[in-house]
Amino acid sequence: MRRHWLRPAAEGLSWRHPGPAGRARVKEGSLSPTRRLAPRLLPLALLLALTACAAPRPAPPPDPELVFWESVRDSRSAAEFQAYLDAYPQGRFASLARLRVAALSPPKPPPTAPKKPEPKPAPKPAAPPAPAPKPPPAEKQGEAVINEAPAPAAAWAKVEDLSGIGLRQRSKVMECWTPPALPQGTGTLRTEIRIYYDANGRVIGAAYSGGNGDLADPAYRVFVESALAAPMRPECRDLELPEGAEAGSFLLLFGLDSPP
Known about the structure:
Distance between the termini: 159 Å
Order of helices and strands: EEHHHHHEHEEHE
Number of helices: 7
Shape: rod-shaped
Radius of gyration: 54 Å
Largest sheet: 4 strands, antiparallel
Strand order of the largest sheet: 3-6-4-5
Helix content: 25-40%
């Protein structure tokens, strides 16, 4: 039974089983070199096709906005989220960044009301003149008379700095202090006064911290009240603090000796 060998339909030719003559022609090299190499090149072509399919595709370039956001998303600094908003004001995470800035920013202090000017203290009335000394009796006229001067209200008064605030501040408070007149024999009085001031160096209050007397004693209470009033006088409330000083307080010791 004969077998027929067919070429592809595109060539329009058919092959039959070669006889002895056909085999001789094949041996003589009647086939073209391309057809003789085709079976050997087929595995190589398949290997190249598989290699092309298996090659990885290049990764897409990173999104710079996403990289920026990932670097600051867990930050606790409002400045870093503000930097993202400056770079991408209409970015995908702009709304969330604004919320983080508002949450991490310190609250703004409420506006302070303008301070009312303090009324000036009324001038103190002038002390009445001391009465003229009475003339000596007639029997003693012509003799030398020695009039004893009244005892001073206090032997001495002083203010000491216990906090290292400086000689200038201590001297200013001392100038504003009017020591009260004490009865004779009261002795030495001491009181510690803590003075509070704001960041502008203005005195905002004074408080009694202790002393060597009893506030139930009228003389000691008058002494303490005079020490509390000294730093609160309008002309003495502005302290001369170094630049950049913060609000705080300092402690002063007021001392007063009564006449013997």
